[in-house]
Q: What sequence folds into this?
């Protein structure tokens, strides 16, 4: 964030090599289905359920490189835990674009993050048809497995075979082409549903003004509440947070210039420009205007860029929000190669706490963790509630920007921190906290994470005891192959094998 910088000294000794890190960005063309038998340690027998992960499985189409991993075809990885054993399966989402490009053996679509059809600008001019890649998240809700990508409707998958069954429209509430974000929030106890869990999600329709639509889904997977709001200006919003009474969005200070996109020179994501002198607008939308607060409020915070939030909760007239903030949007350049990124030249994501006073509409903000971090996870029972523990991907070193190689456990009340690191040759993805059945402590459970091990060019599923990282890994499940660095996923107690 601007104006509140802390010192970023670059560590002289790196905890990684760029070549090792690059190894996690190779395509995985094969689809596997096997019981994992190469295991260090023991899988806790009480850990029963299924971890679903999503992310770009292909970084090239038949040797033609895509420009950015965010443009890669969605591949679901599934790790099922049952009676102390684990099973792995992966499968690509059969989107229209995946099927067509695999058949043609070449890139047929422009991607949002810079992938272009070969042939230069002439081959791309006035082509606004974007490839739906279904690569960002995967959820199991209402008896359905859904692959999510924020610009279009979800893809419905079979949780046993991972086959693509079609697109999901929620009984016609979504229309073809409608967006459904990749960052739903699971409310563990919804006031409006008599304390039953519900799923809250949103869609963004950006333009000169932007429409934000909220959806709330019951346990049966039906959209039971929907409301839409228009806010002024272009919005690039990837994530949001909920509390029992509010949905909160950060409108990052950016502008969008569509001309290079239309001319075929730049992709949509390369036409977004960060505005460092403008504030971040925080949009607070009441979830239940029939009985609760009714007015949408827009508060201002210092300029900065947020992809992901950790959690939010209400304290009297205040809303507290924990978010990973960058000083600016890391811009994607048309001629750059993401594999050659100079980590040290960029500033890290850091954890900030925002306190919104809804009465006088002011925002206080402070950094609560300066170590480079991304991909937060918490105990799902504490979503939207005051909480103590946060698990988050982190760099190995305390200062500077670097790839994620470690997981930080933060006690937000006491400031105590524990770090489990896979450095020097391991690189981690998003950690997921899974509560132990019948747990009564917030951190009683496990943290599951995929780790790319450059030494063996394969990925491990690592299980940590969330109550004590200092014990080291409870188990490391060695896969027979690597999984390209992914984005998001979720755990369900249901076992699918
Ligand atoms: Fe995300």
A:
């Amino acid at each position: 964030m601007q104006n509140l910088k802390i010192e970023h000294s670059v560590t002289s000794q790196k905890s990684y090599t760029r070549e090792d890190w690059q190894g996690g960005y190779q395509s995985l063309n094969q689809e596997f289905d096997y019981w994992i038998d190469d295991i260090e340690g023991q899988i806790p027998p009480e850990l029963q359920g299924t971890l679903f992960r999503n992310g770009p499985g292909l970084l090239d189409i038949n040797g033609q490189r895509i420009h950015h991993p965010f443009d890669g075809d969605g591949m679901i990885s599934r790790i099922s835990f049952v009676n102390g054993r684990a099973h792995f399966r992966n499968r690509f989402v059969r989107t229209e674009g995946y099927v067509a490009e695999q058949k043609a053996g070449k890139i047929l679509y422009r991607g949002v993050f810079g992938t272009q059809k070969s042939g230069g600008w002439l081959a791309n001019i006035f082509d606004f048809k974007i490839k739906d890649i279904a690569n960002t998240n995967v959820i199991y809700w209402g008896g359905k497995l859904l692959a999510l990508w924020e610009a279009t409707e979800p893809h419905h998958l079979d949780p046993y075979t991972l086959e693509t069954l079609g697109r999901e429209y929620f009984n016609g509430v979504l229309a073809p082409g409608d967006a459904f974000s990749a960052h739903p929030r699971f409310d563990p106890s919804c006031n409006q549903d008599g304390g039953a869990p519900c799923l809250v999600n949103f869609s963004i329709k950006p333009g000169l003004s932007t429409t934000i639509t909220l959806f709330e889904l019951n346990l049966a997977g039906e959209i039971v509440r929907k409301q839409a709001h228009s806010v002024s200006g272009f919005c690039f919003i990837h994530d949001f947070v909920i509390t029992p009474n509010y949905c909160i969005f950060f409108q990052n200070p950016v502008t969008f210039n569509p001309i290079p996109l239309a001319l075929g020179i730049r992709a949509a994501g390369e036409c977004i420009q960060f505005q460092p002198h403008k504030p971040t607008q925080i949009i607070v939308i009441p979830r239940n205007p029939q009985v609760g607060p009714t007015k949408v409020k827009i508060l201002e915070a210092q300029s900065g860029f947020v992809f992901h939030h950790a959690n939010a909760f209400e304290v009297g007239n205040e809303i507290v929000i924990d978010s990973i903030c960058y000083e600016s949007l890391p811009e994607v350049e048309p001629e750059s190669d993401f594999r050659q990124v100079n980590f040290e030249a960029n500033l890290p994501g850091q954890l900030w706490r925002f306190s919104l006073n809804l009465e006088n509409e002011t925002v206080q903000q402070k950094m609560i963790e300066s170590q480079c971090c991304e991909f937060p996870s918490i105990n799902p029972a504490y979503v939207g509630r005051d909480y103590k523990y946060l698990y988050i991907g982190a760099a190995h070193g305390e200062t500077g920007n670097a790839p994620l190689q470690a997981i930080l456990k933060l006690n937000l009340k006491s400031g105590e921190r524990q770090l489990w690191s896979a450095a020097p040759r391991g690189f981690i993805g998003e950690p997921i906290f899974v509560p132990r059945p019948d747990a009564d402590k917030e951190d009683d459970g496990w943290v599951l994470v995929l780790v790319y091990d450059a030494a063996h060019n394969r990925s491990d599923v690592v299980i940590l005891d969330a109550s004590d990282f200092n014990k080291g890994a409870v188990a490391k499940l060695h896969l027979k192959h690597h999984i390209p660095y992914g984005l998001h996923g979720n755990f369900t107690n249901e076992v699918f094998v």
